[in-house]
């Protein structure tokens, strides 16, 4: 099942077009999803009358630094919830400013600058993700075995529709492409630290049987390939699993 030697670049069009994007909601939405790197600024909206919860995905808040006005009626409060590591922000009715800001340090050592508009909305939740955390988790999973073995482990996970710790999994909405009698469609895309995997649907749209070879699906960055059913009769389809180095596969 493993394939590593350099072959002709796979010419089938397999570019995924789905982009998973979380953006901050406006004043009408209760939940906001933010993605930030270390030291980044996070813009959001907080409730003018009720609590706003800030939660880190796979991390916890360690401390919050803000400037106090010295007058409780014109200052917002930050409360740390120690069990989950969330923080809750409350703004008094007498708060005059239209925005708040503070710096937050997490237990994994990241620092964020939070700047939020005060809006007349119900209780708000702000969820913050940092891609570096997932990348570190994926790198840990990949380093448990040699790279080629990890590529085979990823194929097994994709074949059994299992999640892999730290890997981003995106379902694709790409339309099928035709290469002769072969119809090709990207189904799912797995992205880790060093490895990337693709789940491909292959269908025979011709009138004659079609035999698929692993070398036909391999590019220079391919580490492992598995084709569930290499020989397809007319009208039949199968699934292929391809794993390569991140940034190379699918190019």
Automatic annotation (TrEMBL):
Residue ranges occupied by any TraK N-terminal domain in the UniProt entry: 35-136
Domain TraK C-terminal: 139-243
Signal peptide: 1-29
Transmembrane stretches, start-end: none
Record has Signal as a keyword: yes
Keyword Endoplasmic reticulum in record: no
Keywords: Signal
Residue stretches in coiled coil: none
The protein, known as: Conjugal transfer protein TraK
């Amino acid at each position: 099942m493993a394939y590593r030697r350099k072959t002709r670049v796979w010419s089938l069009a397999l570019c995924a077009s789905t982009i998973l994007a979380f953006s901050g909601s406006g004043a009408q939405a209760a939940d906001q999803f933010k993605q930030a790197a270390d030291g980044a600024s996070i813009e959001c909206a907080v409730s003018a009358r009720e609590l706003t919860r800030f939660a880190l995905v796979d991390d916890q808040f360690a401390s919050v630094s803000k400037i106090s006005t010295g007058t409780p009626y014109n200052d917002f409060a930050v409360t740390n919830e120690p069990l989950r590591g969330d923080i809750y922000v409350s703004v008094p009715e007498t708060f005059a400013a239209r925005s708040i800001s503070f710096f937050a340090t997490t237990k994994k050592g990241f620092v964020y600058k939070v700047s939020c508009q005060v809006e007349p909305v119900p209780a708000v939740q702000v969820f913050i993700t940092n891609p570096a955390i997932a990348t570190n988790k994926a790198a840990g999973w990949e380093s448990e075995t040699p790279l080629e073995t990890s590529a085979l482990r990823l194929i097994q996970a994709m074949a059994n529709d299992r999640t892999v710790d730290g890997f981003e999994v995106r379902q694709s909405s790409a339309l099928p492409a035709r290469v002769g009698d072969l119809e090709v469609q990207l189904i799912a895309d797995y992205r880790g630290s060093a490895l990337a995997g693709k789940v491909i649907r292959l269908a025979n749209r011709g009138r004659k049987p079609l035999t698929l070879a692993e070398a036909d699906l391999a590019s220079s960055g391919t580490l492992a390939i598995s084709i569930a059913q290499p020989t397809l009769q007319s009208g039949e389809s199968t699934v292929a699993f391809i794993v390569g180095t991140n940034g190379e596969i699918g190019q």
